[in-house]
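Tokens for chain A. Residues wanted.
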């Protein structure tokens, strides 16, 4: 859509999508770290995943170094399949560097963290509705940790991994399996799938305009 409707080249469009995903990941990581301080249950099986997730901010900080970005492009260009796209790789790396600059990072992280906090709040509201009032801090950890685990599964929307982690974490708070499954289903229905339906509805209505050439 960016390419067809707004004539944004792939070298610019790909970094935009990648940066958006990175900020989402960092926002969820922030919420999970905050939630840990309110979590009374065990972290067995979660420590490795959370530790691996914390390496992402370190890698992003290193990525701000121009020399490191240049080295990455050079290494990629050594690949026979990518060598002919060296200029595009350089443009993409430069664009991503701008999108991940300190000023842009602060603004984007605030916006993304607030958005993901609302989803965590949804878990808190659903649990309260089922008669299992957990604290907002606990809801932060359950939803954020579930989302992180789901993202590490590399499945669309973290399907399966996110739900299973939410159910398991709620179980450690003495919420029965059936209730935990119902909570996970409802939360995902009104976060992931509601967003998908809204996006699909908008796409069906506006698809002609989205793919209309500016010429």
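Reply:
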């Amino acid at each position: 859509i960016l390419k067809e409707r707004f004539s944004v080249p792939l070298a610019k469009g790909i970094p935009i999508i990648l940066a958006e995903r990175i900020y989402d990941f960092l926002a969820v990581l922030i919420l999970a770290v905050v939630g840990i301080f309110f979590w009374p249950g065990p972290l067995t099986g979660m420590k490795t995943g959370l530790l691996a997730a914390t390496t992402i901010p370190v890698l992003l900080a290193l990525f701000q170094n121009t020399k490191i970005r240049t080295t990455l492009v050079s290494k990629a260009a050594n690949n026979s399949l990518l060598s002919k796209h060296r200029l595009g790789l350089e443009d993409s790396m430069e664009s991503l560097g701008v999108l991940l600059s300190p000023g842009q990072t602060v603004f984007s992280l605030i916006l993304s963290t607030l958005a993901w906090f609302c989803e965590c709040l949804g878990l808190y509201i659903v649990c309260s509705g089922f008669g299992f009032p957990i604290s907002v801090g606990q809801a932060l950890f359950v939803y954020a940790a579930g989302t992180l685990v789901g993202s590490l599964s590399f499945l669309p929307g973290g399907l399966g991994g996110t739900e299973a982690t939410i159910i398991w974490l709620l179980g450690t708070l003495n919420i029965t399996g059936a209730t935990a499954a119902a909570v996970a289903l409802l939360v995902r229905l009104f976060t992931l799938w509601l967003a998908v339906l809204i996006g699909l509805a908008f796409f069906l209505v506006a698809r002609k305009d989205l793919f209309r050439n500016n010429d």
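The chain is about 75% helix and 0% strand. Residues 177-210 form the longest helix (34 residues).
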